[in-house]
Design brief:
By secondary structure, this protein is α/β, with parallel strands linked by helices. It is built from twelve helices and 19 strands.
Length: about 350
């Protein structure tokens, strides 16, 4: 049976480790979007609140609503609120990030229609990532709107594009340079005094001088920090395991999988595992770019990954049908596996499908 084991003690260890890297006054936004990076968002959120995290964040309104329905009462930021969901955001006491004139005007209209005042929002500026955010030249417009606004700005922030890059990094420095006058203008305005944040997990480690009022930590809570040295203080919380479904003896020259994807160079054995690209173990891990551990030995993926199955060469590894297989976990890190296949741990973890049962280890 394929299952994903979530270790809450490791989550707790990561939380405290990240806290130790922060300035004492800096608060933490725990990012639990995409089902808490492929794990269990409700339980992860509840554990983080229990540990003392000051706020949570998700990508879209539905994710925040699900957390509210699971009993989470902490502040929840919606990073990418869609205008069609503004009414639901208000009804569930979620905190949208406003990122454009249109989003500002539409949310103001919805807030007034709901007869709300001093509604908590966050404002994002685009300083170079060029994803979403107000242009820095629109700072004066934002400040002008505040004079008759139904909002209370809780924070102002931007998203740095490559905080894991070695310093000095010209692109990151340019983003910081653009954000500084934005902060100065907000600080000089008499209407409201927001708090500020710049950093994600990598930034926590790489830019300790810029911790500011808040940091946004996502992948670090789950055990990864995008650098081997930073990883040393964190523990991956998820372990993906399965069992061998069947073993085949393959003769030299025989092929395995769709499109005859692999031809045996010698007599060997392959094991069939009950996981495939429908579960998030994608085709990019085929043809030896992915591997699993069986009795602490590497077994490379052969041929094409199927929708529901994957085949690995086991050679003379001691195992039998039913033997446990580690796909991600002890001895096989998600970031290393992902890098070998040309992707990142974020994609591998967040792609793990709902067909895989999750179990929690307290």
């Amino acid at each position: 049976m394929t299952l994903l084991e979530i270790d809450l003690k490791k989550l707790e260890s990561n939380y405290h480790s990240l806290r130790e890297h922060l300035d004492p006054h800096t608060k933490m936004i725990g990012v639990v979007k995409a089902n808490a990076y492929g794990s269990i968002s409700g339980l992860i959120a509840q554990k983080l609140v229990e540990l003392g995290i000051e706020a949570l964040a998700v990508a879209y309104a539905d994710e925040g609503i699900q957390l509210r329905q699971s009993g989470v009462t902490a502040p929840i930021l919606i990073f990418y609120p869609q205008i069609a969901r503004f009414k639901d955001i208000i009804h569930h006491n979620l905190e949208p990030v406003l990122y454009s004139k249109r989003s500002w005007v539409k949310f103001a209209e919805q807030t007034q229609a709901e007869q709300k005042s001093a509604y908590p929002i966050h404002v994002k500026y685009n300083t170079g990532l060029n994803r979403i955010g107000f242009d820095p030249n629109e700072t004066d417009w934002v400040l002008g709107q505040l004079k008759n606004s139904p909002f209370q700005i809780k924070s102002v922030y931007t998203h740095l594009g490559q905080t894991e890059s070695p310093k000095p990094d010209a692109a990151t420095d340019r983003q910081i340079e653009l954000f500084n006058p934005i902060m100065h203008k907000h600080n000089a305005a008499p209407e409201q005094m927001p708090e500020y944040h710049l950093l994600n997990t990598s930034g926590v480690f790489n830019y300790p001088e810029l911790h500011m009022d808040w940091v946004r930590v996502g992948i670090g809570l789950y055990g990864f920090a995008n650098h081997p040295r930073w990883n040393q203080s964190l523990q991956p919380i998820a372990q993906l395991k399965t069992n061998i479904t069947q073993i085949h003896y393959i003769k030299m020259g025989e092929t395995v999988g769709y499109n005859c994807g692999w031809k045996a160079p010698e007599n060997t054995r392959i094991a069939v595992l009950p996981i495939g690209h429908a579960d998030g173990f994608s085709r990019q891990y085929g043809h030896g770019k992915g591997w699993v551990l069986i009795n602490d030995q590497k077994a490379p993926v052969v041929g094409n990954v199927c929708m529901d199955m994957v085949m690995v060469e086991i050679g003379d590894i001691p195992c039998s049908e039913g033997t446990e297989v580690v796909i991600i976990g002890a001895g096989i890190r998600a970031d290393e596996l992902a890098e070998n296949a040309g992707t990142i741990s974020y994609e591998l973890l967040s792609s793990l499908g709902n067909r895989i049962p999750r179990i929690v280890k307290e």
